[in-house]
Design a protein that fits this description.
alpha/beta; Rossmann fold; Dihydrodipicolinate Reductase, domain 2; 2 domains; 6-stranded parallel β-sheet; globular; binds NADP nicotinamide-adenine-dinucleotide phosphate; Gfo/Idh/MocA_oxidrdct_glycsds; nucleotide binding; Gfo/Idh/MocA family oxidoreductase; Gfo/Idh/MocA-like_OxRdtase_N; NAD(P)-bd_dom_sf
């Protein structure tokens, strides 16, 4: 049997927490800062924090102008020094700059929420996990797609069923979803794996057994550092075939589907985990509320002094880059 990566869920003891927490009364919401005021901060984090009674958005760290009504810093270090009452930070910056910020925040005794992917490398995530444990802080490596409404029901249905094959199709229009995001095309930005890792976060959550990549083809535009398309083949520990087709060149209808066949029926998760069909019948789901789920989980982790760090989706991306055959394709221009 091949060695396969094991998802890592770690916990830290609340009894070894550092001192900043005692500056805030237990009944008060956690004062949190957002770092990086880009698309996901505006679209999801600010509204979700606003809806959660356990959090109070108390500072914004942005190189830009800030937001009216919120304490504004252009550097994280300045915020950490000036606002000891801000005990948590949500890092909404690109992966290439996230490690240094997470390290600084954990070192300063803050709890840290990481947007996905949790790092630009796997080793970064291990280092942060160790630091959080050593400092008695909470580290939450979020995977927002795992909070899509149909993911938990899909996982429950799959249970210990025997998977015979699975196919992931994640095809979207990069010009629509990532206009002008230079970092995503630079080394460490992951290219098409930026959305593709969302599919991998679902698959690693719902599949009854771990997967490992057996082959990969990555298409790189000749003028970019990161791939625009990737085709992956995996096996699970019983050698059931699993394929993934990630492509950023799809115009028209967008596809974020995962189909899993088992010896006792098949399921299809579509719309990025929002919709579920089992044996062709729709299973109704509640409305999408991924980031409400993320902040509910973060509140739970803070209350219990736990961390939640699962690097397995990132491990598959790293393996795809290690094992993948490189194909050079047409240049990409925004
Ligand atoms: P974005 O719109 O480009 O925003 C990222 C922000 O990070 C920038 O606005 C900037 O904020 C800050 N930043 C700091 N250093 C930077 C640097 N060297 N280069 C560029 N920006 C820098 O990106 P995003 O879509 O919000 O994505 C951020 C993270 O969230 C990514 O890891 C992404 O995978 C994840 N995510 C995105 C989405 C989505 O739908 N867009 C969904 C889920 C997760 P300041 O100018 O304020 O400093």
């Amino acid at each position: 049997m091949l060695a396969v990566p094991t998802p890592e869920r770690i916990s830290t003891s609340s009894s070894v927490r550092a001192d900043t927490r005692c500056l805030v009364k237990a009944t008060e919401p956690t004062r949190i800062a957002i770092v990086g005021l880009g698309k996901i901060a505006h679209d999801q984090h600010i509204p979700a924090i606003g809806r959660h009674p356990g959090f109070s958005l108390s500072a914004i760290v942005t190189r830009g102008a800030g937001l009216p009504g919120f304490d504004h810093f252009t550097q994280l270090d300045a915020m950490l020094a000036a606002r000891p009452d801000v005990t948590a930070v949500a890092l909404c910056v690109p992966p290439q700059v996230r490690f240094g910020m997470a390290w600084a925040a954990l070192s300063a005794g803050r709890d840290v929420l990481l947007e996905k992917p949790p790092g630009a490398t796997v080793a970064e995530v291990h280092a942060l996990t160790d630091l959080a444990r050593a400092n008695g802080r909470t580290l939450f490596a979020t995977w927002h797609s795992r909070f899509a409404p149909a993911v938990a029901p899909a996982k429950a249905w799959l249970g210990d069923r025997t998977v015979t094959r699975a196919d992931i199709v994640w095809r979207e229009d990069v010009r629509k979803w990532h206009p002008g995001q230079a970092w995503i095309w630079q080394a460490g930005g992951m290219g098409v794996f930026d959305p593709g890792i969302n599919a991998l976060s679902i698959v690693t959550e719902i599949m009854p057994r771990p997967l490992h990549i057996t082959s990969a083809e990555l298409e790189f535009p000749e003028n970019r550092d990161t791939p625009i398309a990737a085709r992956l083949a995996f096996a699970d520990t019983t050698s059931a075939p699993v394929t993934a087709d990630f492509d950023w060149r799809q115009t028209g209808p967008q596809t974020w589907d995962i189909r899993v066949e088992t010896t006792e029926g098949a399921l299809t998760l579509s719309a990025g985990g929002a919709k579920l069909e089992i044996d062709g019948r729709t299973v109704d789901q509640p409305a999408e509320a991924e980031y409400d789920g993320i902040y509910a989980r973060f509140a739970e982790l803070l209350a219990t002094g736990m961390s939640d760090v699962d690097a397995s989706p990132l491990v598959h991306v790293a393996d795809a880059f290690m094992l993948g055959r490189r194909i050079v394709t047409d240049p990409f221009h925004d």
